[in-house]
Amino acid sequence: MSSTGGPLNAGVLGATGTVGQRFIVLLSQNPMFRIHSLGASERSAGKAYRLAAKWKLSDPMPDEAREALVKPCDPAQFAGCDVVFSGLDASVAGDIEGAFLAADFAVFSNAKNYRMVPSVPLCVPVVNTDHYALVAGQRAASGRKKGFIVTNSNCSTSGLVVPLKALQDRFGPLRRVVVTTLQAISGAGYPGVASLDILDNIVPLIEGEESKMEAEVLKILGGVSADASACAPLTDLRVSATCNRVPVIDGHTECVSVEFAAATPPSIDEIKQCLREYTCEAQRLGCYSAPAQVMQVTEEEDRPQPRLDRNAGGGMSVTVGRIRECPVFHVKFTLLVHNTVLGAAGASILNAEYAAKKGYL
Ligand SMILES: NC(=O)C1=CN([C@@H]2O[C@H](COP(=O)(O)OP(=O)(O)OC[C@H]3O[C@@H](n4cnc5c(N)ncnc54)[C@H](OP(=O)(O)O)[C@@H]3O)[C@@H](O)[C@H]2O)C=CC1
Ligand SMILES: N[C@@H](CC(=O)OP(=O)(O)O)C(=O)O
């Protein structure tokens, strides 16, 4: 809640895009926030939102957005916002988010630009909210009173780190992880991948995705330095990612093999129990968007499937299935994450809810 006790005023940068539209639906349903300002490019600025956005979600466009005038992404136009969410294209996110930060806004970003900056929490809110310890250092180093930036991860990373975190916490360090993704087309934004490329097809390349996943996992599963000035990524875990685009609208599927560092790995039953029992700080604090069950472990042999499982927990739960022994590593499984909910807008919103509960906003 804001200092006046009402909902927090939320601005959305990149409000017309794929992630921006998801922000608008989720914020309109969330009692902690009120949609205050919507921003996009000069192509959209000055238009009513309903005319600027090519609406792609099956949820109707919320009334509070329809007639709102889209603004340019200029901090002066967002005065009165308690929090700013960004779904900006990465080609412009660095400069625009930097300008909002300099103007002392709390920025929650989906873009890749600031993710690997050591003083910036790269936070999947069901995994590593302990990285908020970096916020005080960010403010001290910059002299800002209120402003800080928290990013969420790449959408495939956000699904992968959830079971990995549970396994690491319960059974000790992981040694090697191999992951192959089957990523939905909404991950490429709009208009994204040409229909002639993706219909009746699979594209075995998503530029830059594999190296992002491999690096982000280490930062998220790592800690922060003793003086909380920088992140401390894991150094002993090796991650290999292979990323593919598949003709699914929403929901990234990932086939994962994991090797534990311990000589004696846990049994498959112990692993299932660990994933089912995993809880996070955002749940314990009663954050509105925290899923009741962080992971839904399915025993059905042919699940998870994107059409059937992507909305688990309102898109905030990760579904994990086909958990079985791996003849090369120790265990393998298939997971599904909703790429624009836990993988993007939903994670940013839960990050902000957590920040509010902890007094950062
Ligand atoms: N889609 C996904 O599943 C995920 C996306 N992300 C990241 O989130 C961000 C948004 O992705 P997505 O929604 O898919 O992308 P889209 O291409 O669908 O949307 C991009 C948004 O950025 C705005 N924009 C583009 N250029 C400018 C500019 N010069 N000034 C101001 N605004 C501008 C667009 O406005 P306009 O309509 O006016 O052009 C639009 O609102 C990206 O950084 C992406 O990498 C992260 C995780 C998952
Ligand atoms: N590249 C992801 C989505 C995305 O935009 O990720 P990032 O923010 O890490 O570039 C996908 O194609 O599904």
Automatic annotation (TrEMBL):
Keyword Amino-acid biosynthesis recorded: yes
Record pathway: Amino-acid biosynthesis; L-threonine biosynthesis; L-threonine from L-aspartate: step 2/5; Amino-acid biosynthesis; L-methionine biosynthesis via de novo pathway; L-homoserine from L-aspartate: step 2/3
Active site residues according to the UniProt entry: C155, H252
GO terms, biological process: methionine biosynthetic process; threonine biosynthetic process
Occurrences of domain Semialdehyde dehydrogenase NAD-binding (ranges): 9-135
GO molecular function: aspartate-semialdehyde dehydrogenase activity; NAD binding; NADP binding; protein dimerization activity
SMART domains the record matches: Semialdhyde_dh (SM00859)
Entry-linked Gene3D superfamilies: Dihydrodipicolinate Reductase, domain 2, NAD(P)-binding Rossmann-like Domain
Enzyme class: oxidoreductase
Catalytic activity: L-aspartate 4-semialdehyde + phosphate + NADP(+) = 4-phospho-L-aspartate + NADPH + H(+)
UniProt xrefs under PROSITE patterns: ASD
Top-rank lineage group of the source organism: Eukaryota
EC numbers, comma separated: 1.2.1.11
Keyword NADP among UniProt keywords: yes
CDD domains: ASADH_C_arch_fung_like, ScASADH_like_N
InterPro entries noted in UniProt: ASADH-related, Asp-semialdehyde_DH_CS, Asp_semi-ald_DH_pep-lack, NAD(P)-bd_dom_sf, Semialdehyde_DH_NAD-bd, Semialdhyde_DH_dimer_dom
Keywords on record: Amino-acid biosynthesis, Methionine biosynthesis, NADP, Oxidoreductase, Threonine biosynthesis
Function: Catalyzes the NADPH-dependent formation of L-aspartate 4-semialdehyde (L-ASA) by the reductive dephosphorylation of 4-phospho-L-aspartate. Mediates the second step in the biosynthesis of amino acids that derive from aspartate (the aspartate family of amino acids), including methioinine and threonine, the latter of which is a precursor to isoleucine.
Annotated family: Belongs to the aspartate-semialdehyde dehydrogenase family.
Protein name: Aspartate-semialdehyde dehydrogenase
Native source species: Coemansia biformis
Biological classification of the source: Eukaryota, Fungi, Fungi incertae sedis, Zoopagomycota, Kickxellomycotina
Chain's gene name: HOM2
